[in-house]
Amino acid sequence: MWSSRKQGALVASPKQGAPAPTTKARGDAAEDAALLHLQRQGLKLVQRNFKTPGRGGGEIDLIMREPDGTLVFIEVRQRASQRQGGAGASVTPLKQRRIVFAARHFLLRLGSEPPCRFDAVLIDGASGHIEWLRAAFDASGAI
Question: What are the distances in angstroms from CA 32 to CA 2, 37, 118?
Fold first, then answer.
């Protein structure tokens, strides 16, 4: 059912007569591909889909740790086309604030704050190409 594409991206092979995948299914597949790509680069998964309690909070797709101990909060975005700026343009200032908000909640649970970074993994839905943007934004610009 899964076939490999550029840089380790995994995309579902459509079945004859099968319904189109849901938005959630496409999002889950994009997160799976991003996770695999980052693990191949040496990062270790800490938590997936961390959500803050209550309404209006934020969610972090992947929380991973670099070999040097840096905690990395990762937003995974996939777009089928480059219209309206593609996947990168969809990480808006509002989205960044929500990710930073969620990251602060996550860090409160740790007791001590390790070095942190906010990354984005952008996936081109047409080609499956994965682009990993290290330090895509920072907490100071998202306040």
Answer: 11, 9, 18
> Cα separation of 42 and 108, whole Å?
26
The span from the CA of 98 to the CA of 57, in Å, is 6
Where the chain has pLDDT below 70, the residues are 1-19, 79-90, 141-143
* Contacting residues for 50 by C-beta, under 8 A, at least 6 apart: 59, 60, 63, 102, 106
pTM: predicted TM-score of the whole model, two decimal places: 0.79
Q: Quick one: pLDDT at residue 81? A: 56
Residue identified by tokens 């994965």 is 130
Q: In degrees rounded to 5, what are phi and psi of residue 5?
A: -125, -170
pLDDT value, residue 116: 96
Domains contained in the chain, CATH given: 2-142 (3.40.1350.10)
pLDDT of residue 48: 96
What does the alpha-carbon distance between residue 82 and residue 89 come to, in Å, rounded to a whole number? Answer: 9
